[in-house]
Amino acid sequence: MSEPSVAGSTAEREPMGRVAVASFIGTTIEFFDFYAYGLAAALVLNKAFFPSLDPVTGTLAAFSTYAVAFVSRPLGAALFGHFGDRIGRKTILIVSLLLMGGSTFLVGLLPGYATWGVLAPVLLVLLRFVQGIGLGGEWGGAALLATEHAPPDKRGFYAMFPQLGPAVGFILANLSFLGARLSMSQQDFEAWGWRIPFIASAVLILIGLYIRVRIAETPVFRRALAEEQVTRIPLLQLITAQPGALLLGAGVMMIQYTLFYTSTTYLLNYGTQVLKLGEITMLVVVLLAVVVLGLATVFSSILSDRVGRRRVLVIAAAIAIGWALLIFPLVDSRNLFLIWLALAGCLCLMGLSFGPMGAFLPELFPTRYRYSGAALSYSLGGVLGGALPPIIAVQLQASVGSWAIGGYIAVVAAISLGCVLALPETRQVDLDAKGPGTNLR
After folding, report:
1. Disulfide-capable partner of 330 in 166, 276, 277, 338 (CB 3.0 to 4.6 Å)?
2. Which CATH architecture has domain 5-422?
């Protein structure tokens, strides 16, 4: 189905270079904040906020506070999705950036257990919860900003820019932690140095706000507003009209989250705590592996415009089933190259499947509840694919062995593959269509 000619009108559309930067900078900053917390959870939060617990229990507690944000992300997706579908994408993107940025900055200032006792971890959980709400509204808006501005035949390409946010955001977060760790002793890093990336994120937030304020509302939403296609309760229409697409979209996201957070968060902790490799060594290995994520995201986003989103997603999920079984034999070798290969393979597959999702999820839903649908699918996938793997991995490692973690990842990949196969191709969908973007309820 072809896009109507008005969708291609350059008179309505913001310059795509500016749109690309606006969608990219926001997700980069948001994911910098999010991953800085993940790195801190893997390295120091158990000592700063749960010092009375044994190492395994303390690590579980730290990863549990990490998981809180994934639980709150669907709430943020529902909240921001509602207003994004009601009043527009631009305003909500600014609010979500402020909410997440403020909570991240306050984590850097929060006193530890030694100073505030039990109140410290309670406030840590609260700030993490708020951080998740902000991110729950961020990704959907950024993806829609790109796809609803883009020419029909280049939606995958321009939706690539918000998808690069995780790779670039993680690299920046990793570099900030690595720089802090290299510039001071282990004792100083654990005492106060880990706070530097959180506090410094305030500068990035101001840059992101400046760029976001200058961008225009998307032409697709402006047309829906002019034609009175805006609905009063978008979430209700979404659940009524397309519950299947919502849940299957979340299922597709599961393997991407699982691959990313297992390889970057859990394996960072596994390398330092179980294999007894140095923190600096593991940070560098993870950093080099994340570069592969960025490259794979670019490749798959562009490829999805040529061969379709679904085909790329099917191939990536199928390969991930087999690769999952190789991850821990490679890591347990203690050979740094093989450890990097294990992580790079995970992140390559994550990038191959993550790249098309910036266009795929928005294309599943019509304009009147597109923000709610895309954001909720993305965030619900995070609850199962992002919050649980680090916690389950710690427990499996302690009770069964590392080989079981690979089996768990393979099962998640098989579930995601089934969800992809149950969804239609969306590359030719008309974003201005009044009905559902797919034939699937």
Report:
1. 338
2. Up-down Bundle (1.20)
